[in-house]
Specification:
Helix content: 25-40%
Number of helices: 11
Strand order of the largest sheet: 6-13-12-7-8-9-10
Strand content: 15-25%
Shape: globular
Number of strands: 13
Order of helices and strands: EHEHEHEHEHHEEHHEHHEHEEEE
Length: about 325
């Protein structure tokens, strides 16, 4: 995998909206925070519209912003303003070639998983992590650089608030290629039923529904061939338990789950228990056990649609450790 050039203070960061329209305050907040941190953020021409229905702009305008950022040699990273839906409209062989010829950091998650898949097929690392809204809400405290700049009472989802400063610093450290393995281990309590073990491999994945929607396309990374020997991570929001079960069953029937070295299930949020399962984690652990999946499995790891969203470099080699007492650790190698 190609590692894009390290980000340095003073470098330009393009801010694009490749999917759903975004509130201007989140873009303005991200600009202010990045400037305070010493970077030169540059909102792309159509980052705030004109909107096209639910999309930030037309397909052509959103693609043009992304292509401009990739083709500009002075832009060192591309920060996506938000996810939602719409990145799939931008996928093409031409865009993949442009990424391969101009490797630079892509930053985002959720619907941005479609673009992460394209970066993977182009052979370029990218960073799965939070976007403009988190930079606005959770900017590092300029005095202590610990925790969020806003008090917990003003943050809708303050779970893991004490870790926010760590995740923001880790994201910046990864972009700058200044993270040593000993300082880049993330530990969290996994859900009951996680499977103990140790595995290493390139980490790939993202939003389950988005990646599942790329099945049988040139950007389908959920195949046995692509996942063989890799670590897979998955998260989602607003999907019913049976819908996630159906997608996982497809992966199991295709042999994709068996091909992995280990699996990290992040946070599955905004769903309700159903008649068959009390929780998403209970369903996942039960099905994997029934399917005879014997590799290391971590569930409820802090990746996904929560305030505590651990940055993951897609395509970077990592170690997954799950202890018998259900503690999960991810370490950059």
């Amino acid at each position: 995998m190609i590692r894009p050039d390290a980000l340095r203070r003073g470098d330009r960061i393009a801010i694009v909206s490749p999917a759903t329209k975004v509130a201007p305050c989140w873009v303005e907040g991200a600009v202010a925070e990045l400037e305070r941190l010493g970077y030169r953020p540059e909102p792309s021409p159509h980052v705030s519209g004109p909107a096209s229905g639910s999309f930030a702009a037309s397909d052509a305008d959103r693609l043009d912003d992304l292509r401009r950022a990739l083709a500009d040699p002075g832009v060192k990273a591309i920060l996506c303003a938000r996810g939602g839906y719409g990145c799939v409209h931008l996928l093409s062989d031409d865009l993949q070639r442009l990424v391969a010829d101009n490797p630079k950091w892509l930053v985002g998650f959720s619907d941005i998983s479609a673009l992460h898949a394209l970066w993977q097929m182009a052979g370029v690392e990218s960073i799965h992590c939070s976007m403009a809204k988190q930079l606005t809400l959770f900017g590092l405290d300029p005095e202590s650089e610990e925790g969020a700049a806003l008090p917990a009472s003003e943050i809708p989802d303050a779970e893991g608030l004490e870790h926010i400063g760590f995740t923001t610093r880790l994201m910046l450290g990864l972009l700058a290629d200044e993270v040593a393995p000993e300082s880049a281990t993330v530990e969290a309590a996994a859900a009951e039923g996680s499977r103990a073990g140790v595995a290493e491999g390139e980490m790939v994945g993202g939003n389950l529904a988005v990646l599942n929607g790329l099945a049988a396309t040139p950007w389908d990374i959920l195949t046995p061939e692509y996942l063989r020997g890799k670590l897979l991570f998955l998260e989602d929001i607003g999907e019913k338990i049976y819908q996630v079960e159906r997608m996982l069953t497809r992966l199991r029937l295709a042999g994709a789950l068996d091909a992995t070295a280990g699996i990290v299930f992040g946070r599955f949020t905004e769903y309700s228990p159903d008649a068959n399962h009390d929780s998403m984690e209970e369903m996942i652990c039960r099905r994997l056990r029934e399917w005879g999946i014997t590799k290391p499995i971590a569930t409820r790891f802090p990746i996904g649609h929560t305030s505590y969203n651990v940055p993951i470099v897609e395509g970077r080699r990592m170690r997954l450790e799950v202890t018998p007492d259900a503690m999960a650790r991810l370490t950059y190698l």
